[in-house]
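S1.2 Input.
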Amino acid sequence: MRFQGFEDRLPAFTGVACTACLIDYASSMSPDPPTLLGCSAVIFLLLGVHFILSELSSRQWSRMAWYAAPFLLGSVSGLFFTVPATLPGLWGLRLGALFMLLAYGTAWQAMRVMLGCQSQPLIVLLTCSASFMLSILAGPTGLVHVVSTAFRLAAIASFHIFAACGLRHNLSIRTPARRTLLKLLNVYAGFHLLLVPFVLWIPAPLGAAPTTIWAVTTYNFLAIIEVALFALAMIAIPWEQLAFRQQELILQDPLSGGSNRRAFQSWLENNGKICTREALLMVDIDHFKSINDAHGHAVGDQIITAMGRVCTDILYPPTVLFRIGGDEFVVVFQCASPEEMLATAQRLRKAFRTETRIIGGAAVAATLSIGAALCPGTGIARTELLARADSALYAAKQTGRDRVVHFPWEDEEMSPAPANDPTAIAETGL
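S1.3 Output.
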């Protein structure tokens, strides 16, 4: 009977034992905060060393220091958080928080250096000093501890916001990595700002309440994700920007400063219809070969440069200047009416004649012939608009040069055409 009773109880005993084993196993597999923080510190250290080694060849020591500083300081912060007992009292945690805030501040400065802006270390030092002083005055609990934690979170959010604003306002950085980094900065800035009102109830290191394993794990996970993406962006943005500038140089005319024929061909082959009320001017420098022969190619180059300068001075973005030949240009801009287009063309013609009156100390009679075409409200293919402007330019040359000629569409309301050409509207240089 006793054997039978033991046999009856065996399944229950086995089930309890298995459950206890599973609980012990789960406990052994739970996150260990020092291990997590230690791994993060090693990752940050490796990234810092990477930026030091990658910038050594350039010998730009200041940039190398700013690029590596966020990761090295983050590594020091992780070490203090991993073994805070190495220092008496709360000093290990205080120094860990200080170096973490310094890491965020120097990351903002690294961003400014990458954008070509002057670094502002004084703001970072003052903010971090104020945060450190509050942490010294604060105990493990109490009002000052809450205020110190809220100030630290607000400072981290501010560094993110400053970095995002600098990245957003810098127009020279136009790459996919830039957009990704901007989103990352906005998300993390919003996250830290959201923590401030609830700092009293959220566990440390995310808030001021007593530390919990899930809070440390969450903090560590978010830090690793941000640091990894930030490092990738810092690596990718300069390379993408270099490729972008090389592409710009390939498509740029060095004399006029406008785009070249390759860029014009790309614009011309753009699929679909062009924008409504897009004006196109075909521009030719009159007797350019004769000017070159009489005054030399150096003067000819200065005339080409003057053309680009005049377009920059009197035309407004998003006007585009293409140099499609030695003395041939295409100007594309938006306008609301044929009258506005012709007025712009006349300003261009007159300004160019004034600008090139004296070139290199010599009197030069350089003028422009301009053929103008305006896209109708229904929109047409760009090749058709170009052909119409080209025909108008040919007419301008045939009727005396130094003038603007426009062939209006049937739906354009214009003043009566000259009697000798019922389809053309010409404006001379009188």
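S1.4 Remarks. The radius of gyration is 35 Å.
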